[in-house]
Amino acid sequence: MAHDNYLSLISLSLDNMLTEDEQFSLEKHLQSCAACMHAWEQMSLVDGMFKAPVEITPPPEFTSRVMARVSSYEKRRHLYPWMTLIMTTILLAAMMSIILPVLFVSLGLYRVLFDIPVLGDLLTRLIEMRAQIVTLVGSFGASAIRWMSIVTNDPMALAVIVTALVMISIWIGMREALKLQPAAELSTQSA
Ligand SMILES: [Zn+2]
User: Fold this and answer.
1) Are residues 103 and 11 both part of a single domain?
2) Are residues 66 and 23 part of one domain?
3) Is residue 56 part of a domain?
4) What is the H or E stretch that residue 8 is in?
């Protein structure tokens, strides 16, 4: 019998599909043929690998790792919209606080406020009380008013303040982003 035939006998033998005679003739050949003996060893090795019960148990920390990743993702998913909202609000508020008074005064929009019943009355009283307020607030109020007039009259000062506010908003945003970074690093390290 040729070697190829013994190879198919080896395969059948591993599946317990040989007759006693075939099994006997195979064993006899294996004792005398190194090549077929080697093939037998290789094939029985592979066969054993497939027959052995394969344990597909996840590593012990697997679940906790996955949960840590999920929770860190959830945290970021919840924080980012809030961060964006807060940053946008700060930026808009900063811009409005600068632009609105300027628009108000330059366009004469403040006159409209006096037509609003309660607010107009309040403003009228406030203007009447202005002299007292200025006296009360004293030098601090005076310097604040002077500062405000500089800001509203000097476009350079206005630009500096707007830039500063934008920088502060960016800084706050960066700080929040950096706060999240260690958590993200930790989850990649443990992975
Ligand atoms: Zn052989």
Assistant:
1) no
2) no
3) no
4) helix 3-14
Both tokens of 101, joined, read 């008074």
| Residue 144 maps to a domain | yes
Ion ligand 1: residues, CB within 5 A, are 3, 6, 33, 36
Decide: 144 and 154 in contact? Cβ < 8 Å: no
Looking at residue 161, what is its pLDDT? Answer: 79
Quote the ligand 1 centre to 2 CA distance (angstroms).
7
Q: CA–CA separation, 70 vs 64, rounded Å?
A: 10
Radius of gyration of the chain (CA): 42
CA distance 156 to 32: 101
Number of domains in the chain: 2
Mind listing the pLDDT tens digit for each residue in 7-42? 889 989 988 899 999 999 999 999 999 999 999 998
For residue 55, the one-letter residue type is: E
Residue 84 and residue 165 in one domain:
yes
Whether 57 maps to a domain, the answer reads: no
- Mean model confidence pLDDT for the chain: 76
Q: Are 22 and 66 part of one and the same domain? A: no
For residue 35, report the distance from its CA to the centre of ligand 1, in Å: 6
Range of the domain at 18: 3-51
- The four Cα atoms 117, 123, 128, 134 give a dihedral, to 10 degrees, of 170
Both 27 and 101 in a single domain? no
Cα 158 → chain centroid: 36
